[in-house]
Give the backbone structure.
Amino acid sequence: MDRRTLLLALAALAAGPVSPLPGQVIRSYESLDRSAGDGGYLTVAFGFNGSVGNTDKAEFDLNGAVGFRGERHWVRLYPAYLVRRQEGTTSELERSLHLRHSYLIREGLATYAFVQVQSDRSLDLDRRLLVGGGLRPRLLPLEGGGVDLGVGAMWEEERIADGGRERSVRGANLLSAAGRAGTATLSLTAFFQPVLDDWSDHRVALAGSATLPLGRGWAVDTAVRWRRDTEPPVGVGRNDAGLSVGLRLAIG
């Protein structure tokens, strides 16, 4: 690793993720599959931000993808963990596990099916369970990727901290664009998740990222996000925005 690479890596670790505003969580996993080729692969992305003195604070964010891509079948598992501690107290804790399967029907057209379990203390969310799927046609090929449209539905069950429980059927729709600009890999994903019998209750999100390779599987990863939930839990804001800078390691 040369001096320039080392400086970039240290800068990424020092920056760490910026704390988001409260709001509902829609997680984007698209960027974690950039290294996916034929066969097995593993991607790990992490960030850390800490301070002592006037403010005793530590934040750790870990995301990953482990998968196998065959001629037609593509299976991957995405674990995620986020913890923030301030003055010795955990102020936010988010955990999620997402299992996804895709089947290539023909060139440019695939199915997708998924199961996701997550919890988030900042949202008073004890558990959210999602089960869904749909079709994903490719609208436009691009160098190093393309523009895809995902149209589907999912069953959702939420259990919040005060004992309340809600069930609904939502759309599981997305528009994803990925490609290359020089040595950087770019992606942008938009989500739309309405309750199917009440479209005024919906979630929308935008997630963009850029990855700059450092060599030997390492890269600096910068991501921005914005999300909005029209019907969040009581005491939780409708909007959520954030910026993160961290390191990524890809194997396979």
In short: The chain is about 5% helix and 70% strand.
